[in-house]
């Protein structure tokens, strides 16, 4: 967030809770950007994805627009339509756990590939983000 806008809105960008929220928003945007990048890499149009999802092309366009807030079920349907799986990891803030070091990843499931391919990984230091 632009510091000037944050100041006008009375948002303290140094607040750990605000930093965690901003990090979560950034992860969400990277997920959508990665999915859209895979769609484009595969030569699929929004209309192709819409047909596979049982939705309209404008609905897919809305999904791909940054700043949106799609439901988890919509993300899953979009991912399935382009032939990938999205894996989730849950970690309790401030506690060390196995999942805290597990990177989020987007993985190809099939599409002529015997071995799943990882298209993007993101590893977040949750202890650091919770500060």
Automatic annotation (TrEMBL):
The lineage's top-level taxon is: Bacteria
Q: Which SUPFAM superfamilies match?
A: lambda repressor-like DNA-binding domains (SSF47413)
What GO molecular-function term can you cite, just one? DNA binding
Could you tell me which residues belong to the region Disordered? 93-131
Pfam families, from UniProt? HTH_3
| Residue span(s) of domain HTH cro/C1-type | 35-87
Q: Which InterPro entries match?
A: Cro/C1-type_HTH, Lambda_DNA-bd_dom_sf
Polar residues: compositionally biased ranges: 94-121
> What name goes with this protein?
Helix-turn-helix transcriptional regulator
Source organism: Nonomuraea montanisoli
Source organism lineage? Bacteria, Bacillati, Actinomycetota, Actinomycetes, Streptosporangiales
């Amino acid at each position: 967030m632009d510091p000037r806008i944050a100041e006008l809105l009375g948002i303290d960008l140094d607040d750990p809770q605000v930093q965690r929220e901003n990090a979560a928003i950034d992860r969400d945007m990277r997920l959508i950007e990665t999915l859209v990048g895979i769609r484009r890499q595969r030569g699929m149009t929004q209309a192709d994805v819409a047909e596979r999802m049982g939705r309209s092309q404008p609905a897919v366009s809305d999904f791909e627009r940054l700043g949106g807030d799609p439901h988890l079920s919509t993300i899953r349907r979009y991912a399935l339509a382009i032939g990938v799986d999205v894996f989730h990891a849950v970690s309790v803030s401030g506690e060390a756990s196995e999942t805290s070091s597990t990177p989020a990843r987007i993985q190809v499931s099939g599409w002529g590939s015997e071995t799943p391919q990882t298209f993007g990984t993101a590893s977040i230091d949750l202890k650091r983000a919770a500060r």
